[in-house]
Amino acid sequence: xxxxxxxxxxxxxxxxxxxxxxxxxxxxxxxxxxxxxxxxxxxxxxxxxxxxxxxxxxxxxxxxxxxxxxxxxxxxxxxxxxxxxxxxxxxxxxxxxxxxxxxxxxxxxxxxxxxxxxxxxxxxxxxxxxxxxxxxxxxxxxxxxxxxxxxxxxxxxxxxxxxxxxxxxxxxxxxxxxxxxxxxxxxxxxxxxxxxxxxxxxxxxxxxxxxxxxxxxxxxxxxxxxxxxxxxxxxxxxxxxxxxxxxxxx
Length: 250
Prior knowledge:
The chain is an alpha/beta fold. It has two domains: 72 residues, CATH 3.30.1330.30; 160 residues, SPOUT methyltransferase, trefoil knot domain (Alpha/beta knot). The strands form two sheets. It has a six-stranded parallel beta sheet, sandwiched between helices. Helix 1 packs parallel to helix 2. The longest helix is centred in the C-terminal third of the chain and has 18 residues. The protein is elongated, with a radius of gyration of 20 Å.
């Protein structure tokens, strides 16, 4: 099976971030007679500065191909998403990593990557099998955040966990069965990795055994279940709060 050679970057925020990150965009396609707000004006200025071809297509062309992704009158065409490797991750005392165990919903993956980038996460690690890939849909859902955070795709998550631990990273697992709340861990002065589990089954037992701490997010509602992207934000920004208060980002 031949590899896909063209990759659509859909929506004005995703296109803008791809250009800001110097991602290899070949051309920009703009909707004829569309509304050109400040973001689109900035995209066109960047594209012209970089010598990127700009084409126009009618509304029907956009609706036929991208309606479900809300293209907002603009798409970019570039190379397929480029994953990073483990050895590209830089471990500092204030680093935070996310490890995703079989996150299969592209909507969740895109939302998690967006949250991770906003929180300054140093890398997001996913597994090749049983996991969503960084598709055009994920790029769009992440609002282009995938272009600013290292996303590493590995064959074996347990190996990736051990790789980080050998470099001084402490590993936090999340499980609703844990009696330790996520805010009862001292996140200061050390690099951390947070493992988030599959939407239905959680983290596999083999990975839980690799964790230094296993934490839960206490809840008082009747549903007693959070979307995994929301859980990621709760734990991540607690880490950021403690590290920020400790002066680790000064």
